């Protein structure tokens, strides 16, 4: 695991940015990089890089089609995972695989392999959709 990537609905993005203000390593603003076009903030906490994207309007570069596409995040589709006593919503595997397949960077292809090999279900998880 290189980092933690999160998306939050647009209306919650400013609250998240403010809550993590002491740990900002890359300020909240719009970035267009090689494969990503979105507004996000990067935090560094205990040596771990945490990137939080605004769920309104992100785009990714679809390597197979060689074009930018909207990354439509459906926040109603998730799995609840209990981690350290917290119930956290986690993007469904098929949604994660779909967008990582479009990106098709080596790191994404490795992630897809790991996701598909993983048959271990996290304890106390349930699916929503």
**Portion of residues within helices:** 10-25%
- In terms of structural class, how would the helical and strand content be classed? alpha+beta
Q: Compute the number of helices.
A: 3
- In this structure, how is the largest beta sheet organized? 6 strands, mixed
In N-to-C order, the SSE pattern is: EHEEEEEEEHHE
Beta content comes to 35-45%
pLDDT < 50 runs, ≥5 residues: none
Taking the alpha carbons of the first and last residues, their distance comes to 27 Å
Question: What's the number of extended β-strand segments?
Answer: 9
Shape: globular
Mean pLDDT: 89
What is the radius of gyration computed over CA atoms, rounded to a whole number of angstroms?
Answer: 15 Å
What is the element layout, followed by pairings?
Elements: E1 4-8, H1 13-19, E2 24-32, E3 36-45, E4 48-54, E5 59-62, E6 67-70, E7 78-83, E8 86-91, H2 93-103, H3 106-117, E9 126-128
Parallel strand pairs: 1-4
Antiparallel strand pairs: 2-3, 3-4, 3-5, 5-6, 7-8, 7-9
Helix pairs in contact: 2-3
How would you describe what is shown here?
- Helices cover 23% and strands 42% of the residues.
- It has 129 residues and is of the alpha+beta class.
- Strands 1, 2, 3, 4, 5 and 6 form a 6-stranded mixed beta sheet that branches.
- The model has no long low-confidence stretch (mean pLDDT 89).
